[in-house]
Amino acid sequence: MTATIATQLADATTKASFISGIQYLGQAQSELDRYGAAPVIKEGESRVADSTAVQAAYQTLLAADALRYLMLQMTGEKASGHPGGYASGAEAYAALWMLGHKNMVTEVGHHAPGFYSALFLDRSLEAMGIHTVSDLRARFRERHGLLGHLSGAIPGVLAPAGPLGQGQHFALAGALLNRDKLFPVSIGDGGLGEPYIMSAFQHFLTAYPATTNFLPVLIWNGYSQEHHSMVSTTNNDEMIAYWKAHGFKEVILVDARDYADAANVATYADSTAFPMANRIAFTSRVLSAMDEAAGKAMSGTPTCFIIKQLKGAGVHARGSKSHNLYPGDTLTATHMVDAMKQRALPEEAWKLVRTNFARAGGGPAAQTVVTELERNIAELAPLTLTHHAVGANAVPSTSMGSLVAQVGTQDADYIVTNADGNEASGLKVINDALKIRHPTTDPLYNQHPDGQVYEPLNEDACAGLAAGLALFGSRALWLSYESFAINGLPIVQTVAQAMAELRRKTPSLVCMYTAGALEQGRNGWTHQRPEVENYFAALMRNGNVYPVFPYDANCVQVAYDWAVRTHNKAIALFCSKTALPVYGDMASAQEAVETGATALYDSGNGRRGTVVFAVSGDMVLGPVMAAKTKLEIEGFRVRIVAVVNPRRLFRPSDVAWNTVAEADDKFMSDAEYETLFGGDMLIGVTGGASAILEPVMLRSRHRRRDMLCWKRGETTASPAELFALNGITEKDIVDRVWALSR
Q1: Containing H/E element for 333?
Q2: What does the alpha-carbon distance between residue 589 and residue 345 come to, in Å, rounded to a whole number?
C-alpha cells in the first residue's frame, strides 16, 4: 500500500468517525434508498437545486431529526440545557441551511443546543477541536466549550443570544451592511411578548424600506418557558394580521396541524408523530415556503415566515415541560432513551446530512458567515478638533457633535442613533450634517430619506442597531439622555461581552450620554438616572468596558477621537449639554484620556496640608472649584484631579484585561497615582454613582478619605438646588474637609 493510499484511507476513517459517541443508530429506512441515494446539495453547489423535490424534502427531514437527536444527546450528557423550543422549529432551521442561508441569528438564547448541533454537522466546530459526537457531548456547557447560550466565541455564530428581544437588531444590522445576503432571525412566541421586537421591525422598515433582506422566523409552539405563551390562543389569521400591522407585506405560515391524518388533532401539532408520508409532506411545504419567503425578502418585499408546531416536537417531553432538562433527565433515563431511539438515524443518513450541511452556504459557517471575516471600513482622516480657550464657556456635547459629523461625512456606513432627539442634547450639528432618516423630506427638521441619524422613540432599538452594527464590523454611535438610557443598556452589555470574545477586530461600540442627573432638576426624579454610571462601573472589570467622564468641551473631543479609533471595546462617554467652563487644553485632555486622570488645579502649598479632590464629571467641578478658593484662604493646599478614564486607574490585577480580544494593558503606575492623588486627605466627588471612583479609592492609602456623591433625585428649579439636596455644594465640600482635618 502506498503512502498516498494509506493517507486517503486514514482521512476517510477520520471523516466517518464523526458519529463516534452516538448512543443509538436507527434501522434502515426504505425512504432512504428511494430519496437519499445521493446528497441533494451537489458537490460545488451551496443549496438544494429544487426546493419542491421530494428528495429535498426527505433529506431536509433527516436533517431536522439529526438536529433533534444531537440536542438530546448533548443536553442529556449534562442533564442540562434547553432542547424544546428549537425542536418545534427544527424543520424550519433545517430548511434555511439546506437553502444555503447560514447567516442566521436568534433572539432565543435557549436555542443554543440546536445551533451547536447544526454547526457540528457542517464541521464548523472542528475549529475548536470538536470532531465527534463524543467531543460534542463532553464540551457542552463547559468552559472553553459550548456555552449554555450563544456566544461569539463559537465559530460560525454571528451574534450572542441571551436576553430575549435582542436578536432582531443583529439581523437588521447584518442586512443593512450586507445587502446581498439573507439574515434570518428566529423568534420564539414566548419572546414575542418582549415589548420592542415588533416596534423595532416596524421603525426599521419605515426608515430603510429598501432593506428587506432579513427574515423573521417565528417559532410558534404555544408555550413559553414555564407556561402557555400569551399568544397561544391567537388564531392563524390574527397572527398573520399582527405581523402585517407591523410592516410585513408577506406572512407565510405553515401549520403542522394541516398535515396530520388524525381527526380532532390539537391546535399545536407534533409532526414527528405523523406517518412518514405526512412528515415528508409537511417538511416539503416548510422547505418550499421558506424558499419562497427568502426570495421575497431578498427581492424587496418585507416578509415573515411562521412555523406552527407543538413545543418539544420530537424530544423528551412536550409543551413547557420540554423547555429544559433537570437532574433526572439523564441519558439512562427511560424517557430520554425512548426519545433518542425514536429520532435515531442509520449511519448512512448521518453521512448524508453532514455532506449536505457542509456544502450548504458554500462551506462551514465558521468559514463563510459575514462575521467570520474582518469588514473593510472607510479609513478615517484626522478629525479637526476645536481648541476652546481655557476659561471660556463651551457646550461639551456640541463640541463632540462636530466630530461626529466629520466621521459621518467620511464614512457612509456610519449611523448615529438617538431616541430622544439630538437637538435636545445640544447635538443639532449632527442633524445638520448627517440628516435624520425619515420618509418625509423636511429641511426644517433635517429630515431626509437617506439620512444617517436613526431616531426611533425606543432606546432598545437605538442601542440595538448601534450595537449590532459595531459587532458586525461597522462604526456606529448611540446617543441618549442618560435618564432614558437604562432601557438600552442590556444589549450594550451583551455586545460588550461578545466583542471581548471575538477572533477578529471590529470597531468599538461607542455611546454618549448627555443630561445626567444634575441637569434634569426641573424634569424631576423620573429623569434622574445615575444608575447608568453604576451599570458601567460594574462592567469595568470585564476588561473591555470604559466609562469615560470628560471634564470639558476640549476633553470630550479628545475622548471621542480616541474612542472612534479603538476596537472590540464598549466605550461610554458622559457629558453635559450645558455651557460650562473649559478647564484644560488639549494636551491635558490627551493625558487624562490616555492615563486615566489629570490634575486640573494645584495651589502648590498650604500650611494645613494637602487636600486632593478626585472628581468625575464636568458640571460637578463647579462647586469643587468654588470650594477650593475658600479652602486656600483657610490655609489648605488644594489639588483637583479630573478622573476621566477610571478603568485605567485600576491595578492590572483588578481587571480581566488579558482575557479579551484587543487586550489593553495600560494602567496608571503606583508612582503616577501617588503624584496625582497623594496628599493628606482624599475626597471623591461625583454628581453620579460613587462606584465610578472605586479605582481611586481602592488604591488610596489615605487614612483620611471620604466621598461626596449622588443620593437621590427630586424635582428642583435648578441644578444648584439638586446639588444641595445631595450634599455636593461648596459649603458641603468645605465642611467635609474640616471634618477630616480634625
Answers
A1: none
A2: 65
CB-facing half-sphere around the CA of 173: CA atoms within 13 A: 31
Q: Which of 546, 547, 569, 593 is nearest to 661 (CA)?
A: 569
* C-alpha span between 597 and 630 (Å, rounded): 24
Spatial distance between the Cα atoms of 300 and 320, rounded to a whole number of angstroms: 37
Confidence tier at 225 by pLDDT (50, 70, 90): confident
Average pLDDT score over residue span 666-672: 96
Looking at the DSSP assignment, which residues form a beta bridge with residue 417?
454, 478
Q: Residue 68 corresponds to which cell in the numbers above?
A: 433533534
Please give the Cα distance from 679 to 649 (Å, whole number).
Answer: 17
Cell of 90: 427544527
CA pair distance 703, 698, nearest whole angstrom: 12
Instruction: Report pLDDT digits (tens) over 559-616.
Output: 999 999 999 999 999 999 999 999 999 999 999 999 999 999 999 888 999 999 999 9
Rounded to whole angstroms, the Cα distance separating 204 from 215 reads 13
Q: How far is CA 614 from CA 399, 541, 646, 676, 706, in A?
A: 24, 20, 11, 9, 10
DSSP designation for 375: P
Grouping H, G, I as helix, E, B as strand and the rest as coil, residue 272 is helix
> Which grid coordinates are listed for 576?
453635559
Taking the model in full, what pTM does it have? 0.95
Q: Output the CA–CA distances (angstroms, integers) from residue 313 to 47, 91, 246, 277, 516, in the order listed.
A: 26, 10, 29, 17, 50
Provide CB contacts within 8 A for 300, sequence distance 6+: 210, 212
Nearest alpha carbon to residue 625 among 636, 635, 639: 639
Distances (CA, A) of 297 to 166, 284, 308: 20, 20, 20
Residues 6+ apart with CB under 8 A from 530: 482, 516, 517, 687, 688, 689, 710
CA–centroid distance for 508 within its chain: 12
| Tally of CB atoms within 10 A around 610 | 18
Segment 495-498 long-range contacts (CB within 8 Å, at least 24 positions apart): 495/160, 495/467, 495/468, 495/470, 495/471, 495/570, 496/539, 496/542, 496/544, 496/545, 496/569, 496/570, 497/151, 497/160, 497/542, 498/151, 498/152, 498/159, 498/160, 498/471
- What CA–CA distance (Å, rounded) separates 297 from 294? 5
Q: Which of 103, 157, 155 is nearest to 124 (CA)?
A: 155
Q: Please state, for a pLDDT cut of 90, what percent of the chain lies above it.
A: 86
Rounded Cα distance between 291 and 517, Å, is: 51
Task: Dig out the grid coordinates for 587 from the structure.
Answer: 494636551
pLDDT for the residue numbered 12: 37
**What phi and psi, each to the nearest 5 degrees, are found at residue 730?**
-55, -45
Per-residue pLDDT averaged across 286-309, rounded?
A: 98
